[in-house]
Amino acid sequence: MIELNNLTFKYREDEAYALDHISISFKKGDWTSIIGHNGSGKSTLVKIIMGINESYDGDIFVDGEKLTEDNKHQLRKHFAIVFQNPDNQFVGATVEDDVAFGLENLGMPRDEMIERTNYALGLVGMSDFKNHEPHRLSGGQKQRVAIASAIALQPEVLILDESTSMLDPEGRQDVLNILKKLHGQLDTTILYITHDLTEISSSDKVVVMNKGAIVLEGDIEEIYKNKTLLRQSNLKLPYTMVISEALLNGEYVTHEELVDKL
Ligand SMILES: Nc1ncnc2c1ncn2[C@@H]1O[C@H](COP(=O)(O)OP(=O)(O)OP(=O)(O)O)[C@@H](O)[C@H]1O
Ligand SMILES: [Mg+2]
Questions:
Q1: Structural domain range at position 208
Q2: Which residues are CB-neighbours of 232 under 8 A, at least 6 positions away?
Q3: Ligand 1, atom nearest to 47 Cα
Q4: Both 68 and 169 in a single domain?
Q5: How many domains would you assign to the chain?
Q6: Do 18 and 108 fall within a single domain?
Q7: What are phi and psi of 19, to 5 degrees?
Q8: What is the CA(95)–ligand 2 centre distance, in A?
Q9: Which residues form the ABC transporter domain (predicted)?
Q10: Interstrand relation of 157-161 and 189-194 (parallel, antiparallel or unpaired)
Q11: Is residue 67 domain-shared with residue 100, that is, in the same domain?
């Protein structure tokens, strides 16, 4: 779906690389979690994928086609992103208008627009706030609306850049469950950015970033095997990993399996 080939990027010429020779491909329909501590380059990477940061070196391919000045809008048409900070993402006067806005831009018939808006707001548990002003919502509620706006578009690629950071653990789990459903039903390609290793359990693939570079990639079991590298990348190991390391030779276990084994 998306392939990055030797991507490098600097914000300023005299600074270190914000992205340091990144080569990776994100397969169609895969859920990839990109994990790294503060400043490791995650947001820079997704901003380049979305075309917000330009002037990078290296190549980006979408469905095998190289991204150029001429085709970039066309190739990114089916990408949607939810940013870290929901405040800059609202365009509508009400929650409902806001979610419908992107659909209106696609020239969608009114009936379908209403149906998709209601469906997306229902998914994130914000139906009761349809007529509220987005600016008057709490941080977590804003994030839910931002996620609904992206989901309503039914994008082929959905990127979430720490978009659940303001949600409580339960709300975060709700969003992960919603993504799981989307991923299963619509075959959406998901790039889930986080610094929290407890959030990666549904991903097909995990990419660990540190200092602008990819230091590890693999499935969850492979990530579990590399605890030293995770620690070196300043990531906090979840308790399942720590206990598994101490008692189970470091094998991958879910919460439930761990409880069973103990
Ligand atoms: N607008 C900017 N101008 C200059 N430097 C920047 C800018 N944005 C990010 N950087 C630098 O680029 C590097 C990578 O930042 P980036 O925002 O991509 O990290 P991140 O992994 O998303 O971190 P976080 O977890 O804090 O969101 C950091 O060293 C940061 O200081
Ligand atoms: Mg970031």
A1: 2-78+155-219
A2: 210, 215
A3: 18
A4: yes
A5: 2
A6: no
A7: -130, 130
A8: 25
A9: 2-236
A10: parallel
A11: no
Give the tens place of pLDDT for each residue, 30-77.
999 999 999 999 999 999 999 888 889 999 999 999 998 889 888 888
| Of the listed ranges 35-39, 92-96, 167-171, the one predicted with least confidence | 167-171
pLDDT score for 5: 97
The answer to whether residues 84 and 34 touch, using CB atoms and an 8 Å cutoff, is no
My answer on whether 46 and 112 are in the same domain is no
How many CB atoms within 10 Å of residue 211?
A: 15
- For the CA of 15, the nearest atom of ligand 1: 5
- Please tell me whether residues 74 and 179 are part of one structural domain: yes
CA distance 155 to 92: 20
Looking at the CA of 49, name the nearest ligand. Answer: 1
In a domain, 71, yes or no: yes
Strands 31-35 and 189-194: parallel
Q: Is residue 225, in this structure, part of any structural domain at all?
A: no
Q: Residue 156 in 3-state DSSP?
A: coil
Q: Is 215 exposed, middle or buried (0-12, 13-18, 19+ CB in 10 A)?
A: middle
44 CA → ligand 1 middle, Å: 6
130 belongs to a structural domain? yes
Helix (H, G, I), strand (E, B) or coil at 46: helix
Instruction: Determine phi and psi for 26, rounding to 5 degrees.
Output: -110, 115
Distance from the alpha carbon of residue 93 to the mean position of ligand 2, in angstroms: 27
Q: Which residues line ligand 1 (CB under 6 A)?
A: 11, 18, 36, 38-44, 195
